[in-house]
Specification:
single chain, mainly alpha, two-stranded antiparallel sheet, 29 helices, 2 strands, 70% helix, globular
Length: 520
């Protein structure tokens, strides 16, 4: 067995110290100079591995050039037939997104190892070309677990869960990565029951990533109660894992949805103890949670303690304050954001226009809506919707209608319903009837619009028209989506839906209410 040369040992030491770029430069200098440090079988695989890692990161263009120089070195020093160097080249080009070059190197290899096959297959799968990945996979003389896992992951990422399941079923042996990847696929596909079966089938083989995927899957599919229950299982003494920042970012939306603020405060305190509240993604989730639950002061404390702040964090505080009615404060933070050199984006401007809307700040709304062109931000339907709502609520119905007519892709149902509501508030029957006609074309089964028109007609004592609207409502089923309330008691959250008697303690609740009435 050939031992690494002195040159390879030096490069290894540089890489271990995190000096990747310097290690490649060191090789380039020694290659140009008359140097006793000649490359060996270890040199190019080592350098190409680091170039591939950079290609997969943020410095892709620079590492691509370095990789091409290393490829030239492989040819110059006669390592083209070395299976390790060629495999490293295939891996490098695959991670750089240059699959044409990767395939050329792969096809020219005189002999291939299992990692060679896996490298080209993973490259295709990562790019979303599952047909080519499947073709390579079928030609592999032997397959190991990482190869199967790469296929499962590739199919999951393109949304082909049935094909991922077929690969999973064909595996001679499965590990936690196999199961977790397929779990993720089912969660993305909305099938949390199938995902949970996989999760429950590996009680001793789970890792923290498995827990995070299942919790995030429940949150993604609006099953917040199940997400919180699973999170509490993760906190139990029988579980060897401790929540990390991914866990917190996954579970906080479920806390927000259910309003379980006792648990939310526990999560915040846990994040503070572990120093995770200084991570931008965790802090942003906490800001969003507090603002959606109406606690603006705590949200501002989290925001002020975070440094540096990225655009996502600024967007969360601006949007949250806007929705909570702190319009001037939201606009002030927007100005501060710009002074700090953070460029606003489309989401930022939704928050700004929403602040103007909630505060009735028509002039400011007009100003910033026009300013979007100067900022280089294209106007989307959400921005038009905010402006239409602002103008409509403040009585500028004609201007709101003109704005709708200028929308490049036309208004959606939400924008039309907003203007219809504004017309009803200001008693503009004629305009409301015109808007209603357009709204029916976009959303013919939106009962809310018919209810708005019925109430408008009733307010104007136009009883025949009101009865006609009532008939239309009855034809469509006669009911809007039921409202619901969430009540947090201890560590559990109970949901009560209007008109529903499905709660497990319904009879007990009715008895207690009856007793309370006797004392009122």
């Amino acid at each position: 067995m050939m031992l690494p040369s002195k040159h390879s040992s030096i490069l290894t030491a540089l890489i271990c110290r995190g000096r990747r770029t310097f290690s490649v430069a060191s090789f380039s200098r020694n290659r140009r100079a008359v140097s006793p440090l000649a490359p060996d079988d270890y040199t190019f695989p080592l350098l190409l591995k680091e170039a591939a890692a950079e290609a997969a990161g943020a410095s892709g263009r620079r590492s691509s050039i370095e990789g091409q120089k290393l490829h030239a070195g492989v040819i110059k020093f006669g390592f083209s037939s070395c299976v390790y160097a060629s495999t490293a080249l295939v891996d490098f080009y695959s991670k750089s997104g240059d699959l044409t070059s990767a395939r050329v190197v792969f096809d020219e290899m005189p002999r291939r190892s299992l990692p060679s096959w896996t490298a080209i297959m993973v490259g295709y799968a990562r790019s979303g070309d599952m047909r080519s990945a499947e073709e390579v996979f079928s030609l592999m003389p032997e397959k190991d677990i990482p190869a199967y896992n790469a296929m499962i992951d590739g199919f999951v990422k393109v949304g082909d869960v049935p094909s991922a399941q077929k690969v999973f079923d064909a595996m001679p042996e499965r590990n936690v990565v196999s199961r977790t990847s397929l779990m993720h696929g089912y969660c993305m596909d909305g099938n949390t029951e199938a995902a949970r079966l996989l999760f429950d089938a590996m009680p001793r083989r789970r890792n923290l990533h498995s827990w995070n995927v299942m919790i995030r899957g429940y949150c993604r599919n609006r099953e917040s109660g199940k997400a919180l229950k699973l999170f509490r299982e993760l906190q139990s003494q029988s579980c060897p894992f401790e929540p990390n920042e991914v866990t917190l970012v996954s579970v906080i939306p479920a806390i927000t949805d259910t309003g379980a603020m006792d648990l939310g405060r526990w999560v915040h305190e846990f994040a503070r103890r572990k120093g995770l509240d200084r991570r931008a993604n965790v802090a942003t989730a906490l800001i969003d949670m507090y603002l959606k639950c109406g606690n603006a002061d705590e949200a501002k404390r989290v925001f002020n303690q975070l440094n540096p702040k990225d655009a996502t964090c600024w967007n969360a505080i601006i949007n949250g304050l806007a929705v909570n009615g702190h319009s001037r404060e939201a606009l002030g933070l927007f100005e501060e954001m710009r002074r700090n050199g953070i460029s606003p984006n489309s989401v930022t401007m939704i928050g700004v226009l929403s602040a103007c809307n909630h505060g009735g700040l028509v002039n400011e709304g007009r100003q910033w809506f026009q300013e979007m062109e100067v900022l280089g931000i294209s106007k989307k339907v959400e921005h038009y919707g905010c402006m239409v709502d602002l103008l409509g609520r403040c009585g500028y119905l004609g201007e709101a209608m003109e704005l709708i007519e200028k929308m490049p892709s036309g208004p959606n149902g939400i924008v039309l319903s907003s203007l219809l509501f504004a017309c009803a508030c200001h008693g503009a029957v004629d305009m409301a009837e015109g808007v209603m006609k357009s709204a029916v074309e976009v959303e013919p089964r939106n009962i809310g619009n018919y209810i708005i028109m019925r109430n408008l007609y009733a307010a104007k004592k136009m009883w025949r028209d009101a009865l006609n609207m009532k008939d239309e409502i009855n034809k469509l089923g006669g009911k809007k989506e039921a409202g619901c309330s969430l009540v947090e008691i201890g560590t559990s959250v109970s949901e009560f839906v209007s008109g529903d008697k499905a709660h497990q303690d319904w009879e007990v609740i009715c008895d207690i209410i009856g007793c309370l009435r006797l004392h009122m």
